[in-house]
Design a protein that fits this description.
Blueprint: H1 3-20, H2 26-31, H3 38-54, H4 58-87, H5 101-111, H6 115-130
Helix pairs in contact: 1-3, 1-4, 1-6, 3-4, 4-6
Length: 131
């Protein structure tokens, strides 16, 4: 796999997340539209080219690029929803560790892991699967 293409795909994903986060419901708004403006089309073009440069076959490059985009959008939607809930003082509460020990442990891990680290972890796994 082409490391430069993989690095570019990762960079594009991080940049998209950074662009969406400052805007209220940025992930939801972007996910719910198909915008044919040059900046959004340029992102798609760059992501597909990065997938190709990574070694993804031509027949799969668009699928790979948009899978990465869908991951970013889903993560941002969840991230923004969690922030909105926290801003409103809504607590998700503790998970019953007796009944759901793995979920309770996982919840603690998520609470104690910065969002940037969570995002990078999932993105790295997704992009690694394209190799």
């Amino acid at each position: 796999m082409g490391a430069a293409g993989t690095d570019r795909l990762l960079e594009l994903a991080h940049r998209l997340r950074s662009a969406l986060l400052p805007h209220r419901d940025g992930g939801r708004v972007f996910a719910g539209t198909f915008v044919r403006q040059s900046n959004t089309l340029a992102f798609g073009e760059a992501a597909i080219c990065a997938a190709l440069a990574s070694g993804v076959p031509d027949s799969e490059a668009a699928l790979a690029a948009f899978s990465v985009q869908y991951y970013v959008l889903g993560f941002v939607i969840e991230e923004q929803a969690a922030k909105e809930n926290a801003d409103r003082g809504e607590d998700r509460g503790e998970v019953d560790a007796e009944r759901f020990p793995r979920v309770a442990a996982g919840s603690r891990t998520l609470r104690n892991t910065p969002r940037d680290v969570q995002f990078a972890y999932g993105l790295d796994r997704l992009v690694a699967s394209l190799r």
